Amino acid sequence: MMALSRPACLPRSATQSYVMAVDPRNTSRRCPACGLTTRENRPAQDTFHCVGCGHQAHADTVGAVNVLRAGPGRAGPARRDAQAA
Ligand SMILES: [Zn+2]
After folding, report:
1. Is residue 38 situated within a structural domain?
2. Residue 31 is part of which domain span?
């Protein structure tokens, strides 16, 4: 069996990775542009449309951005929760 080795063209830092657990709650409802979190931001399963600022994207893209930002030290917009009706 042949051992895997780091490709010579990549710097050491590009080959290092780690797994981090993040809180997944509201990652598909939080606007990555303004931080507004409300279920109304998801008019359909695959659609994200922020009712606060109008930002639109595929819902999976929004979820992925929010999961990335949930890691420690990641910058993102301040969280802004919708007012209770
Ligand atoms: Zn927004």
Report:
1. yes
2. 27-80
Q: What is the mean pLDDT of the chain?
A: 81
For residues 30 and 42, give the distance between their C-alpha atoms in angstroms, rounded to a whole number: 10
Whose tokens are 């695959």? That residue is 46
pLDDT at 73 over 90: no
Q: How far is the CA of 81 from the centre of ligand 1 (A)?
A: 11
42 pLDDT above the threshold of 90: yes
Helix/strand/coil (H/E/C) assignment for every residue in 17-55: CCCCCCCCCCCCCECCCCCEECHHHCCECCEEECCCCCC
Q: How far is the CA of 61 from the centre of ligand 1 (A)?
A: 14
For residue 16, report the distance from its CA to the centre of ligand 1, in Å: 34
Is pTM, for the whole model, over 0.70? no
Q: Is position 12 within any domain? A: no
The DSSP code for 13 is H
Domain count, the chain: 1
